[in-house]
Amino acid sequence: MRKPVVLITGAGGEIGHGLIERLWEEGRPAIITIDLNPLDASLGPKVARELVGSILDTNLLERILAEYEVDMVFHLAAILSTRGEFTPVTAHQVNVEGTLNLLDFAQKQGESHGRRVVFLYPSSIAAYGLPDLETKARVGRVKEHEWNVPTTMYGCNKLYCEHLGRYYNHFYKQLAAETLSGKVDFRAIRFPGLISADTVPSGGTSDFAPEMIHAAARGESYACFVRPDTRIPFMAMPDAVDALLRLARAERTGLRYNVYNITAFNPSAEEIRELVLEGFPGAEITFEPDLKRQAIVDSWPEDVDDTAAREDWGLAPGYDLRSAFTEYLFPRIAARYGTATP
Ligand code: SER
Predict the structure, then answer these.
(1) Is 154 an active-site residue?
(2) Residue 110 near ligand 1, beta carbon < 6 Å
(3) Does 59 fall in a domain?
(4) Distance (Å, rounded) from C-alpha 71 to C-alpha 119?
């Protein structure tokens, strides 16, 4: 008998970290993880099996297939938007071929145990591309089908993988026998920038917000790599994990779409700085825009319309901008670094 499990790829990343903690608190399901690096010591005991390896290693996926019955996949592994611009071909391999490997893995799992495998995919605001700041200001909140013309390799990869997921959902081997038809139940969230109190991101372009906060808590000066007026949507990590689990557990019949926007607040970089200074009054934060990273963030929308997620599966972020800082980030980050907040 193979054992039923949840599979999480990229489990050592920021979302994986929050997701494993939440699943552990909620009911301790059996979790198998794949990550290039060993998990943090705090997470190791919370998973049934930790595999250190690559999602490009199909032998590794075959071994999981032989041993476990996977009902749900959280495919979080990816090379983020800034790092992807330094190694675009590698980003494509990891982000697209890796996702194809996982979709194919989920299909085979479904064929072997006869149920559809729920496949959660973190897409991104990077799937959007606005041509200039004037357009960005004019269009404001964008809906899922608008401005799907990304400018980064990462954004192109995310947008294309949304389509791959749609294919596996509805059209897989549409000319073949009925028994081979789609066994993947693909569900994607276009995440805004995420801010965690427990981890710092690496290789993303929305990283300026979490970097600013964590640097202030460590008592280090920070030169923000975007202009003060830069505005994109953000969300606190607990709400992002909550959204992922709500979508994972939603009845398929209530889901009108495969891909949903979500957001919680959309401060400018200057507004983030002012809030950080309330919590850490001595913080030294300056602005030294990096033109290339600025261009990426300028192409992302200043806000997204998440009405469909609220209507279809009850998206309900608990933190607004102020409470994300005062109730979540300040107390937790200060405790983490042993610093005091007023
Ligand atoms: N936050 C990610 C990044 O900045 C986007 O998904 O790359």
Answers:
(1) yes
(2) no
(3) yes
(4) 9
